[in-house]
Amino acid sequence: MQRKALILTEAVKLRRLRWLYVQYTANAVFCMLTVFGAVFMLFMDELGLPKSKIGLLLSFFPFCGLLAPFVVSFTARFGFKRTYLLFFGMRKVATACLLLTPWVLERYKVQGAFLYVAGCILVFSICRSISETAVYPWTQELVPNRVRGRFNAVNTALSSLAMAVAMGTAAWFVHAFEGLYPYMILLSIGVVFGFVSVWAASHSPGGKPRPRKPGPNRHWAGYLSALQDKSFLFYLGGVGMVVLGLGSTAFMTLYMKEKVGLSSSMIMLISMAVLPVSAAVTYFWGWIIDRFGSRPVMLFCLFCSAFVTLGWVLVPREAGMMSLAGVLAINFMSGVVLPGYTLADSRILMVSMVPEERNTNYLSLYYAWLGFCGGIAPLVAGKLLDASRSISGELGFIAINAYSPLILLAALSFIGGALLFREIKTDTSMSLGEFIALFMRGNAFTAAQSLMRYRRSKDEHQRLSVTQQMGEAKSPLTTRELLADLNDPSYSVRLEAIIAVARMASDPGVTKALSDMLASGDLELRSVTAWALGRRGDPDAIPALRACLDSSHPILQSAAARALAALEDTTSGPLLAERFIQERDARLRLAYAAALGGLQVESMAPSLLEFLYELESNQSRREVALALARMLDAESQFIQLCRDADMHPGTRYANEIMNLQSYMVRLAGPDEEAAGVLDPCINAFGSHQMDEGARLLSMFARRIPLHGHHRALAQIWEECALRLGEAASARQEYILLAFICLRMHKEAKPAESGYSASL
């Protein structure tokens, strides 16, 4: 029974995407091992062809792109799939003919080999132009729009990995063998992968013939309209300049071999190493472009490309590892910035330059111009290299050689393209300076990594992990995703998002979003939101936090009070003091006490000391003691004492008295009884007799008052003297505060300390 053909629904398309992955991955290997990339450039150099003839051969590929407007109607009538398979296969046959090049070289010398290779490349280029004219509309039909981004990402990753393996293989062959033999092996392998790509393409559906539509040709008016579009003309000019620069940098493969002194195998390994980098940053650039627009990315990448290109003149020549390091650095930077330009250019063309109602006219002009410029670029570069082959010399520490004019031309071309692109109209108003500022705040690389994970995170654990990573990046690049996570269905993810945005730099959008969360929603999250606003340090959050002080929920009032203290809102000090006196809820009073300490409201020291004595919780007493230490500007010292005392309290207290003993003796002056308790006190603490040590310290404090410095110091010292004799082993915060008072009194200037005349 004959099977009925399936309708090309989205389900069928998704099912058959795997054949596209195989097709593009196999074709990537074919391209790297045959007519594209460093292998073919080194192969032509091994044939002994001059630079001008190499440039001529390279120009065939783009020049044949001028055929596209003339064959597009044929590909539609014949069928996109049928046309692609026919000419895609024919270009593999043309490539296979290159395997006869050694025989032609031996029989007809270099000139004959050049003509033979030129013929093969010309046939290849014509077949390539026709097949690619058919493949774009066919691929558009095959890939559903909703998965197009994911398809491009997966395809780029697989192709880059395959190309990296191919370049590694090529490097081994070139290193292991000499002459043309390794290139013939690599061409053979590439041709095999090429036919695998054709086989995979035959399994993809769609691409049926389309009947020709009747009616007159109305394209001429559309062409005239496109040529009158000033923004589009600036865009074409910029594209032309960039293509000239890229065509010039293609000869850097020979520069690495002839001037830098790298072997052919090493050049291929370097090309292999850059491929994963380019694949990785493609995701990042695509996200940046979608969010911040194409033009700032394009300008940034072009200016970077200009500086990177100029870096070739600084690469040490014949310097072994130093030369290799310089080449790696330049290729790595190129692999980062060039994908950004490519993606930005593609988006500008489709979104900003080409109106949908006249896309045929605009795109025809674009492809024709691109093919013309792409053909001229290698011709100009090759002629320039031949004309400057006798140049040599030095300019300071920079060596001048035949490639120096070409390097300068490429850099100026990138800059010229950027200047022309500044004049085009796009969908974004962000300037280049504003764009660069995005990367100066936080960790852009961590942000990019987290954003790539963000789209793939589905379950709660993954979302929590990604949200945490975005917060750790502290980059404005992740702000939109973090704000989206504030509305995640999961409580835990929302909580993590609040904590994450608390680490972000000041941003009005973030402050507003958090302030809005204070007005409604989960009570616990609202309290965490208040903490986050205090943590961020943005004073714009103060009105919303003050409003929370009137909430009916103590937990929210408590968080708001602490946040206002973190924001150093001294204006709220009197209100918090009043609330502390009137409030009866111990937890809320604790929050007010902590806020008053943070705001250094010294007039409230007696009230806080009274509250401290009433508290039973050790943690709460520590927090109030910290608030009192803050009133003395001694937070860091108090924390250090606490940490040390938690480990070895008696030993730490004994050491503290020994450190302060000479000063305490000076304070005692003629009071020998007060000075006499210090050694027994040291012995008591050192023997872990905490109550005895505290009693002796209390005796000293009662006999020697402290005055001056902070107004609260004398009050705290007096309270410690009173409480140290009361089971101090359970109330060690008084011991800590006593030491803090002694330290701060010692550090104060004599004029401020109010020392007695006996001193």
Kindly report the average pLDDT value. 79
Which assembly state applies to the chains in this document? Answer: single chain
**Low-pLDDT runs:** 749-759
Number of helices: 37
Query: What amount of the residues lies in strands?
Result: under 5%
- Globally, the shape reads elongated
Separation, N- and C-terminal Cα atoms: 115 Å
The largest sheet, given as strand count, sense and whether it forms a barrel, is: 2 strands, antiparallel
Q: Biggest sheet, strands in spatial order?
A: 1-2
The helix content, as a percent range, equals over 70%
- Provide the gyration radius in Å: 38 Å
List how many beta strands DSSP finds: 2
Characterise the protein shown here.
The chain is mostly helical. It is about 75% helix and about 0% strand. The chain has 37 helices and two strands. It has helices at about 10-35, 40-45, 50-65, 70-80, 80-95, 100-140, 150-175, 180-200, 220-225, 230-250, 250-260, 265-290, 295-310, 320-355, 360-385, 405-420, 430-440, 445-455, 460-475, 480-485, 490-500, 510-515, 525-535, 540-550, 555-565, 575-580, 585-600, 605-615, 620-630, 635-645, 650-670, 670-675, 680-685, 690-705, 710-725, 735-745, 750-755, and strands at about 395, 400. Strand 1 and strand 2 (about 400) form a beta hairpin. The relative contact order is 0.06.
